[in-house]
Amino acid sequence: MKARILAHGAALGFDKLAVTDTDLSTEEPHVRAWLAEGFAGQMSYLQRHVDKRLQPALLAPETCRIITARMQYLPADTQPLEVLEHSDQAYISRYALGREYHKVLRRRLAKLAQQINTTLTAAQPPFSFRAFTDSAPVLEKAIGEKGGLGWIGKHTLLLDKGAGSWFFLGEIYTNAPLPVDEAAVEDACGKCSACMTVCPTQAIVAPKRLDARRCISYLTIENRDEIPVEFRKAIGNRVYGCDDCQLFCPWNRDAPSTREPDFAVRYGLDKPRLVTLFAMSEAEFLKFTEGSAMRRIGYAQWQRNLAVGLGNSGGGAEAIAALKRGLGRVDAMVDEHIHWALNQLTSS
């Protein structure tokens, strides 16, 4: 039955699945210490639901097994390093180039749960299943590591020798007592510290320890306020997220591209021009980001991030004119970033 379940998962586009139990007690000291350090920044929801993260049965009662699954998302030929080198282009994290991944994975996981219940026809009443992907208090990476989907690298992402780290994770919590996978994956980072060295803001403060308050992904997505001045130059043209720790990881040199059509590049997001994106009205932004993970940051954060990107660009009359037209368009917070950008371009 378990073999059939894994085959169902492969047919739905998951490149690897595993089953694990719910004991996450070894993670508790690290999680609580990380929160106590204040490394979560404004992500207060991590503190509020920490018990549910550490004890899966509190989130889904009677849960005794977790099916952990991964799905590759990196579109082919998006040339991320080239985009980073062109300061007039906007760099968008590769995970957000396609369709909103939460919906894609949840639908597939829900289908897998239905197929599992069909497979386990002897169960009366049917077993319960709840699907999650980056949408609930779930320790996704720790569960993936426990199930043998990879090891947690120094950049805090789950890594696999063959798949790298360009994949989404999803989980199914269930009370079905499926056989547990015992395949532990050896940590193969070794002495390599490329991810720590290349991080533009030095957010990886120690191996497997990230200060989110310094991370560009946090600063451009989770942070709702002004971006601290000390990090603005380092952000460069990264206007939504950052992939540097993945781009320079040796295990990602030969990582496979996705075959999932939903994750193909939409609207030319792999290398758009900063001035083009900044000129968008709020209505245009909402239409442009429909069905995209980028919709969640809202128009004000979008304009803020783009202003910083323009301030770090090659400049020129076009960029300066675009920034001046943006003054007064949104709010005082965005205007402050526009003034910073104009100062960068006119004082150099």
Structural overview:
The protein has 2 domains: 2-75 and 96-174, no CATH class; 194-255 and 268-347, no CATH class. 40% of the residues lie in helices and 11% in strands. The chain has helices spanning 2-11, 28-36, 45-48, 50-54, 56-59, 80-85, 101-119, 140-147, 194-198, 216-222, 229-235, 244-247, 274-278, 282-288, 298-311, 317-326, 332-347; strands spanning 16-20, 65-72, 91-92, 129-132, 151-152, 158-159, 167-174, 204-206, 209-210, 238-240. The strands form 4 sheets. A 4-stranded antiparallel β-sheet has the order 1-2-7-4, with helices on both faces. A two-stranded parallel sheet has the order 3-10. α15 (298-311) packs antiparallel against α16 and α15 packs parallel to α17. The relative contact order is 0.15. The mean pLDDT is 94.
